[in-house]
Amino acid sequence: MSFSDLRFIFYILPAFVLLHTLVPSRARNALLFAGSLGIYFAGAGASAVAVLLGVTALAYLFARWMSQETDAAMRRAFLGLALFFDFGVLFFFKYFTPLIAMLEPVLPDYWAGFSIALPLGVSFFVFQTAAYLIDVCRGTLEAETDFFAFAAFVTAFPQLTAGPILRYGDLREALHERKPGRVDVEQGFQLFVIGLAYKVLLADQFAYLWVVLERIGFDYISTPLAWLGAAGYSLQLYFDFHGYSLMATGLGRMLALPVARNFDEPYLSRSVSEFYRRWHVTLGAWFRDYLYIPLGGSRHGTARTLLALAVVWVLTGLWHGATPNYLLWGCVLFLFIALEKLFLRRTFGKLRVLPHLYLLIVIMQTWVIFRIESLRDIVAYFRRLYPFFGNAEAINPNDFYKYFSSYWWLFAVGILLCLPWPRRYYERFRGNALVWIPLFAVFWVSVYFLATGSGNAFLYARF
User: Fold this and answer.
1) What is the pLDDT of residue 394?
2) 3-state DSSP: the chain helix, strand, coil percent, rounded to 5?
3) Catalytic positions, please?
4) How far apart are CA 420 and CA 264, in angstroms?
5) How far does CA 294 lie from the centroid of its chain?
6) Taking burial as the number of CB atoms within 10 A of a residue's CB, which of 87, 92, 259, 341 is the most buried?
7) How many C-beta neighbours within 10 Å does residue 136 have?
8) What SS3 class is residue 392?
9) How far is CA 225 from the centre of its chain?
C-alpha cells in the first residue's frame, strides 16, 4: 500500500503508531513484523509476501550458521551459497521474463507470453539482506539471534518497497530497545508531510509535462520543449524519490527507528561522481562497500580503478531494470565519471560556476536515457535536443512558450527546494509555529490533491 494512499494516512498509520507506542517494548518487533507484512500484502499480494518471507528466513538462517562456523573457508562457502540464493531470487524475478521474451522466437510455443510478476521492492530487500550476510561473514557484525528483531529490520514498512537500503548495524540497538515519544512522532510526521508534498504537489504535477511530450511524439517537439521536458523529468524524479525517502525517514522516526538520509542536495554537485555520492546515498554506499572497494577501488592504479567503476556502473544499470536503456544509462555514467577522474577533476577544482552547469546539463540528458525504454525513442529525443543531427521539424515551433507559461511557477518552486535554504529554515524552526502552520496547510492541500486526483505510483517502487 502506498504511503500516499488516503487509507494509509488516515487509518493505518495513526492506528499503527498508537499501537506501537502502547505495546510493551518486547512486543514491538513482532508487531512491526506482522504489521509490515500486512501493509506489504495489501500492496503486493500473497506471492510477493512469500518471496519476502523466504529471503528473510534464508538470510537469518545462513547468518546463524556462519556465526557458528570457526573455519573461514566454510564461512565463505556459506556466504557464497546464501548470496547465490539471494541474488538468484533477484535475477529470476527481474530478468527471467525479459530473457524468455528475447529468446521466444527459438523456444517452444508454450513459452509464448510467459511472464512473472516482479515482487514489490525485491531489489531493495535483496540488497539489504545481502549486506547483512556479507557483514556477518566478514566478522564486522554479529549474527542476530532474535528472529523477530531481524525480520522487523528486513520487512519494516517505512523502507521496504523503495529503500533507503539500511544496514543492520545501524538499527540493531534501536530494534532491541526503543521508546518512541511525542517528539519522535511530531518530528517524524513533519518529515512525512514534507515528503508527501514533494510527491503530490511537485512530482505528480511535473509528470503531466512528460505525458504531453509523449502525446506529441518525441520526433515532433521543438528543441526548447525537449530541454524543458528533460529538466521537468529531472525534477519529477528527484521530488518523487526524495519525497518517498523523506516519508520513510519520518515513518521511521515515529517508530524510533533511525532511517538513513538518502539525498543530500544532489543538484548542487560539481561533478557526476559527486552527484551520485549525494543521490540515492544508500545505494551508492552499498556498491562502494560491497563491490567497488573489494574490486580494488582506487588503490591499485588507474586501470584497476576504471575496471572497478565499469563493473559498478554496469551492475547499477542492470539493478534498475532489464531493458537496454538502463544498461546504456549505466555505461554513459561510467564514461563521464571516468573522464572526470582522468581529465576534468583538476580543471574543475579551479572553477566555481562551470562545474555546476556541466553537471546539470549532463544529468538532465542521462535522465532522458533512464526514462525512455525504447532505444529508437531515445535517439529521437536526442535529435530534438540537438536538432542539427536530424531533419524532423516541430509540429508547433512555439510549443515551448505554451507549456513554459503553464509550468514556470512549478519550476521556480522546484529549483528553490533543490537549494539548501529551505532545509536550513526547517531545521532552525521545526519546533515552532513557523514550521507547523505552513506544514498544516501543505498537508491538507496534499490531501485535497490526493482526494481529487488519480494519483501516481512512486517511480522507484517498480525497481
Assistant:
1) 65
2) 75, 0, 25
3) 320
4) 9
5) 23
6) 259
7) 25
8) coil
9) 27
